[in-house]
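This follows on from our talk about sequence and fold. Go ahead and set the record down below:
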Amino acid sequence: MTNLKEVTFEQPTYDQWQEAAVKQLKGKPFESLLTKTIEGITLEPLYTEERLLEALDGKLEEQVSTVRALKADGDFGVAQQAFGASIEEFVAQTKDAFERGAEFVTVGKVSFAWDEAALKGLAALIDAYKKVVIYVEDKEVLNVFNFVTDKSVEGFIVSDETIALSDFSNIRSLNAYTASAHYAGANATQELAIALARAAELIGEDFAANEDQFFASFAIDPQFFVEIAKIRAFRVLWKAFANAYGVTAPKPVQIVTETSLRSFSKLDVYVNLLRAGNEAFSAVIGGADVVTVHPHNILTGPTDQSIRIARNAALIIKEESHVTKVLDPAGGSYFVESLTHDLVKNAWNYFLEIQAAGGYTKAKAKIEADVEAIWQQRLKEVQTRKSVLVGTNNFADATEQVSTENFVDVNRLAKPFEQLRIDYKQNPVKVAVLAYGELKKIKPRTDFVTGIFATAGVQAEVSEPITDVEVAKQFLANTDAQVVVFSAVDEDVEAVLPQITAAKKAGTLLDVAGKFDAIDGVDGALYAGMNIYEKLEGILSSLKEVQR
């Protein structure tokens, strides 16, 4: 009998694996397995130690040790924002949050003015709980420190502007702020470089004098592994940045994170809860020091329940996942380390471009142009469904209404589709799908069509499967739908559709499901990869022209 302890298995090389993969692809190129991120990084289907060490020039251990050395000891802090129509509600929510696991008095957007009474109420909270995170929406809130009596309180001031605080040495106010660039569309590479460029201006000439007041802040997107690598990459970049000042052993750099609203939608809002949970988990695995989870309905106005759910998302990660019991849980992963390295390399190069252009302030026009280009790419990817926003541009509920409430208003990818749904509600359109052929063969295309119109809030009516040309003509002649989409297999589209186009009513738009050469009498097509937003917007515009 074979002793299994003595059995060895041959270690296949990457080339051998690639050769085996190509055989399984059955004619498709190996490149079809590669994915390019919006940062321009190519994701491989397989990562190996050998290839990673080659990319890092053998410095894998150095990268891992840098990430770990520049992370402060201890778990991440739960910073749950309180919201309230009055300072009394804000205070009550904060006290309740602390009783239920929050660790920072956290200030974001509120719907009351920061008058003296409100400032004193906030100051009393800070004095009582000793830790604070202020996301500066209104600069008046900073006057709270005129009323805080305990000068030893700890915290962070997250602001796009430089904030100077005297007498509060434990409150970090030199913030490499990236949220404005994030919501303008920046990718992870750009955010990291911008953080470094802002750090260069904030730190000035004396690194040691300002190191204890510095921190970086990032909004975390749903791109799980990229966001893990983004946080890890900043710590590697911070060491290189410190070395430029002659500091070879910088202190751990603090990173404050919040879940991003860039992918949030007013449609199918509970999906936002899943997005936020995903974002928070990647922030924690990446090594964030502070995590704020936004409620799933923050766009229209949070409730006590949604605030509690958001806080519990962070607490479940902290208390139940046990991920914080592991030092650098992503460390050593060939995939994550490779992503980290790519982001470090690309971000450092972009940072040098910014510095060569005069630094963050002088290069602002360049940065804004570069970020805007990425935003346009993001929009295009959502509008063509290359990127999916579940419940918004795909898998949408056609019966759902868009809320007109705006509690928080930021640049979001879902906005064009939300407006499209509002436009279609104001200008109702009846859509019919002429299903021609055997149901099981035409169902995929038919479902694709109904799914596209669902994103605009339109429930397309699907005919019973038709297999007779004359019946199809009658359907076209008798329907009161303003838009008819012919759904059939390729052979029937080519053979049948040209025979029935003359039967459509004047003013009716006739489209075909699938990508075909132009057919006389057919107005357009709906097919995978098209810009569905432009298509739906175009249909509405065409119908308005017909009605004039």
Notes: The longest helix spans residues 334-356. The CA atoms of residues 187 and 310 lie 25 Å apart.
